[in-house]
Amino acid sequence: MKRILIIGIIALFLSTPITSSINCQNFKNKNNGMRINFYEEFPNPDNLSKAELINFPSTIYIAGRSLNEFFVYRDMLYDINPSIEAAYWPVLNDSYWISPFSQTYELQNLILDLESYNESRRLKVHLDLELPGKKYIKNNIQNLSFFKNKGLIEKIFLNAEEYNIEIYTGEYPSSSILDDFIWKILGISYSPLKFYHKKTIMFYSSFFVKKPFLKKMTGRYIVSQHNRYDDKLQVALGAIDMGRSGKGPLISPEQLDKDLKFSYDIGINTATIFRLGGLNESYINVIEKYL
Question: If we measure between CA atoms, which residue out of 229, 239, 265 comes closest to residue 33?
Answer without folding.
Answer: 265
